[in-house]
Design brief:
By secondary structure, the protein is an alpha+beta fold. The chain has a single domain, classed as Nuclear Transport Factor 2, Chain: A, CATH 3.10.450. About 30% of the residues lie in helices and about 25% in strands. The chain has three helices and five strands; from the N terminus they run H-E-H-E-E-E-E-H. A five-stranded antiparallel β-sheet has the order 1-2-3-4-5, sandwiched between helices. Strand 2 and strand 3 form a beta hairpin. The longest helix is centred in the first third of the chain and has 14 residues. It is globular and about 35 Å long.
């Protein structure tokens, strides 16, 4: 009589086992290496958009932003990358987000600039 009860308990316990973790593995936090992604707030996004618009003064008001992504490096610096489209195709940008705002370090235009910015973002762990 104990055997069927033990078998039932074993089946029930198997159903209670936790599933494998879906948490991303921790990344290195040494300076210059990629670290954890940063969730951008609406205020961060607005700050980045305003800085890119100021950097490229001829951007029309209708310019759209997409793929805005950020990561914090081991040295604490937050790099944010993305694309802006002013009607002539997507142009990548990269810069540093901090308490003082967002500083654009580069905005693509030529093919070489686009490749350089995409490479820089990739080195920071950001694939745009």
């Amino acid at each position: 009589m104990k055997s069927p009860i033990l078998a039932s308990v074993a089946v029930l316990l198997c159903g209670c086992m936790s599933s494998p973790s879906t948490t991303a593995p921790k990344t290195s936090t040494t300076p210059g290496s990629p670290s954890a992604p940063v969730v951008l707030t609406e205020m961060d996004r607005a700050t980045i958009e305003a800085a890119v618009r100021s950097y490229k003064l001829d951007l029309p008001a209708t310019a759209t932003f997409r793929t805005m992504t950020a990561r914090r490096a081991g040295d604490g610096r937050v790099t944010a990358c993305g694309y802006v489209n002013a009607g002539t195709g997507d142009k990548p940008y990269v810069g540093i987000l901090g308490d003082g705002g967002y500083t654009v370090t580069a905005l693509g235009g030529t093919r070489e600039e686009v490749i350089a910015i995409q490479s820089e973002c990739g080195r920071k762990g950001i694939n745009i």
